[in-house]
Specification:
The chain is an alpha+beta fold and 123 residues long. It is 22% helix and 26% strand. It has helices at 7-12, 21-32, 111-119, and strands at 38-44, 49-55, 77-83, 86-89, 101-107. Strands 1-2-5-3-4 form a 5-stranded antiparallel sheet.
Protein backbone atom coordinates (compact mmCIF):
# COMPACT_ATOMS: atom_id res chain seq x y z
CA UNK A 1 0.00 0.00 0.00
CA UNK A 2 1.24 3.53 -0.61
CA UNK A 3 -0.38 5.34 2.32
CA UNK A 4 -0.19 3.98 5.90
CA UNK A 5 -3.55 5.61 6.62
CA UNK A 6 -5.14 2.98 4.34
CA UNK A 7 -4.19 0.07 6.61
CA UNK A 8 -7.63 0.06 8.23
CA UNK A 9 -9.23 -0.67 4.84
CA UNK A 10 -6.94 -3.64 4.29
CA UNK A 11 -7.72 -4.85 7.83
CA UNK A 12 -11.46 -4.75 7.07
CA UNK A 13 -10.81 -6.92 4.01
CA UNK A 14 -8.87 -9.39 6.16
CA UNK A 15 -5.50 -8.44 4.66
CA UNK A 16 -3.35 -7.91 7.75
CA UNK A 17 0.11 -8.53 6.29
CA UNK A 18 0.83 -5.49 4.13
CA UNK A 19 3.91 -3.66 2.96
CA UNK A 20 3.81 0.11 2.95
CA UNK A 21 6.39 1.83 0.78
CA UNK A 22 5.97 5.11 2.70
CA UNK A 23 6.70 3.44 6.03
CA UNK A 24 9.64 1.54 4.51
CA UNK A 25 11.19 4.72 3.14
CA UNK A 26 10.67 6.48 6.47
CA UNK A 27 12.45 3.59 8.21
CA UNK A 28 15.40 3.93 5.82
CA UNK A 29 15.63 7.67 6.44
CA UNK A 30 15.47 7.18 10.23
CA UNK A 31 18.18 4.52 9.96
CA UNK A 32 20.55 6.91 8.20
CA UNK A 33 20.08 9.78 10.66
CA UNK A 34 23.21 9.70 12.88
CA UNK A 35 21.37 9.98 16.20
CA UNK A 36 18.31 7.92 15.55
CA UNK A 37 16.62 6.50 18.57
CA UNK A 38 14.31 3.66 17.82
CA UNK A 39 13.80 2.70 14.18
CA UNK A 40 10.72 0.63 13.36
CA UNK A 41 11.83 -2.05 10.93
CA UNK A 42 8.70 -4.21 10.70
CA UNK A 43 5.26 -4.02 12.27
CA UNK A 44 3.41 -7.26 12.95
CA UNK A 45 -0.07 -5.82 13.46
CA UNK A 46 -1.95 -9.07 13.97
CA UNK A 47 0.50 -10.10 16.70
CA UNK A 48 0.69 -6.58 18.19
CA UNK A 49 4.48 -6.54 17.86
CA UNK A 50 7.06 -4.34 16.20
CA UNK A 51 10.64 -5.19 15.25
CA UNK A 52 12.91 -2.25 16.00
CA UNK A 53 16.56 -1.31 15.73
CA UNK A 54 18.34 0.73 18.38
CA UNK A 55 21.90 2.05 18.36
CA UNK A 56 23.51 2.01 21.80
CA UNK A 57 25.41 5.23 22.55
CA UNK A 58 28.11 5.88 25.15
CA UNK A 59 25.73 7.52 27.60
CA UNK A 60 22.96 4.96 27.16
CA UNK A 61 21.75 3.18 30.33
CA UNK A 62 22.33 -0.17 28.56
CA UNK A 63 25.95 0.55 27.57
CA UNK A 64 28.33 -1.80 29.36
CA UNK A 65 25.53 -3.95 30.80
CA UNK A 66 24.64 -7.57 30.21
CA UNK A 67 21.45 -8.12 28.24
CA UNK A 68 20.15 -10.47 30.94
CA UNK A 69 20.44 -7.73 33.57
CA UNK A 70 18.39 -5.12 31.71
CA UNK A 71 14.89 -4.23 32.83
CA UNK A 72 12.94 -4.52 29.57
CA UNK A 73 9.19 -4.07 29.07
CA UNK A 74 7.14 -7.26 29.31
CA UNK A 75 7.09 -9.26 26.10
CA UNK A 76 10.24 -7.59 24.75
CA UNK A 77 13.23 -9.55 23.48
CA UNK A 78 16.62 -8.46 22.24
CA UNK A 79 17.30 -10.55 19.14
CA UNK A 80 20.71 -9.65 17.77
CA UNK A 81 23.64 -7.25 18.05
CA UNK A 82 25.55 -5.94 15.04
CA UNK A 83 29.06 -4.76 15.96
CA UNK A 84 32.31 -4.42 14.05
CA UNK A 85 30.78 -5.89 10.90
CA UNK A 86 29.45 -9.03 12.62
CA UNK A 87 26.03 -10.03 13.86
CA UNK A 88 25.54 -12.23 16.90
CA UNK A 89 22.44 -13.47 18.67
CA UNK A 90 21.81 -11.89 22.04
CA UNK A 91 22.35 -14.17 25.03
CA UNK A 92 21.77 -13.13 28.66
CA UNK A 93 25.57 -12.81 28.98
CA UNK A 94 25.91 -10.49 25.94
CA UNK A 95 27.36 -7.14 27.03
CA UNK A 96 25.97 -4.20 25.08
CA UNK A 97 28.63 -1.72 23.98
CA UNK A 98 28.51 1.82 22.57
CA UNK A 99 28.07 1.62 18.81
CA UNK A 100 26.15 -1.67 18.91
CA UNK A 101 23.08 -1.86 16.71
CA UNK A 102 20.51 -3.94 18.55
CA UNK A 103 17.56 -5.61 16.88
CA UNK A 104 14.60 -6.23 19.20
CA UNK A 105 10.97 -7.28 19.14
CA UNK A 106 8.57 -5.46 21.43
CA UNK A 107 4.80 -5.18 21.91
CA UNK A 108 3.75 -2.12 19.91
CA UNK A 109 2.46 -0.10 22.92
CA UNK A 110 5.75 -0.68 24.81
CA UNK A 111 8.12 0.51 22.06
CA UNK A 112 8.94 3.80 23.81
CA UNK A 113 9.46 1.96 27.12
CA UNK A 114 12.06 -0.20 25.37
CA UNK A 115 13.72 2.93 23.99
CA UNK A 116 13.92 4.39 27.50
CA UNK A 117 15.34 1.13 28.90
CA UNK A 118 18.08 1.01 26.28
CA UNK A 119 18.77 4.68 25.52
CA UNK A 120 17.29 6.70 28.38
CA UNK A 121 14.79 9.53 28.12
CA UNK A 122 14.43 11.20 24.70
CA UNK A 123 16.37 14.43 24.31
Amino acid sequence: MNDPRNQQHFDLLGITQTICSTTSILGLVEHEVPEHGLVRMLELQKEGLVVVEVQVEGGSPAAGKKAGGLSLPGGSRLISVFRQGRTELVEPSTVLRPGDQVLAVVPTPAAMDLRRALLGAPR
